[in-house]
Amino acid sequence: MMMLMMMMMMMMMMMMMMMMMMVMMMMMMMMMMMMMMMMMMMMMMMMMMMIMMMMMMMMMMMMMMMMMMMMMMMMMMIKIQYQQIKYQ
User: Fold this and answer.
1) How many whole angstroms separate alpha carbon 45 and alpha carbon 37?
2) What digits encode the pLDDT tens for the residues 29-83?
3) In this structure, is the dihedral angle defined by the CA atoms of residues 50, 54, 56 and 57, taken in order, positive or negative?
4) What is the model's pTM?
5) Would you give the distance in Å from CA 73 to the centre of its chain?
6) What end-to-end distance do the CA atoms of the chain give, in Å?
7) Distances (CA, A) of 43 to 3, 29, 38
8) Separation CA 86–CA 88 (nearest Å)
9) Longest C-alpha distance within the chain, in Å?
10) 2-28, pLDDT tens digit by residue?
């Protein structure tokens, strides 16, 4: 009888241990998944930021080019006017 009891106890303990292990594993898995998700989100955010920055840079460049063009045009106009005045 005692032996049986011991066996039963052992079995119970084993089961409990197994259950605990399973739970722990599940928790670990969940944590891992969460971490992965977070990482992915971060990556996405970074990518978005990068693209935004690129766009901004492009816009700035375009603006600069436009400004330069305008300046050139203005210079040309002034030059032409000056020449006209000179000829008169």
Assistant:
1) 12
2) 999 999 999 999 999 999 999 999 999 999 999 999 999 999 999 999 998 888 8
3) positive
4) 0.41
5) 43
6) 130
7) 59, 21, 9
8) 5
9) 130
10) 888 888 888 999 999 999 999 999 999
